[in-house]
Amino acid sequence: MAKKPRQIDLQFPTGGLDRRLAYQNQPPYTTPDCSNVRPFDTLEGRERGGSRPGISKSFATQFGSGNAIQALSSVSIADDDGTIRDVLLVISNGIISYTNAAGTFVNPSIETILISSTVNNGYFETLGAGGADVFGTWTETAGSGAIAYSQIYRVTGAYSCKLTYSTGEAQIDQAVTVTAGAECTLTF
Asked: What is the pTM of this model?
């Protein structure tokens, strides 16, 4: 004769994930394994188990035909009317894209820079006087990080710029003059 099924009362692990102990020694209301769950209902504020809601893409654009992203940064640009705004800049597969005023990604056909002729010391071949002046033609702000030259990672020549993050950003910059409407090329 078949046994009558036994009813077991299971408690949702509102204590969350805890992988410190064996399965039999779990602290109360915790679990050794879970994924994409939350203990509180965000709509009603009630404690009850549920799955985390899905997330959606911020942008539908696939960069560089699925190749790795080479650079991702927030930059400030000046629009044609002189308005300065922050945009997201993405470089993938050698293609530069950034968010326009509508928030969609575009590939610029103007305002590109020839590093060899417009940017002074673009390949970091000319070292500065030393100390805080690593590359004389660049404005350098080490903050709590560090700015140094490197002979390991370089595009061409003998040197490259090495920026090291500590608790704050290290950065270099250089003002570049471009002619309105002129087409240029930005090379990394």
From this structure: 0.36
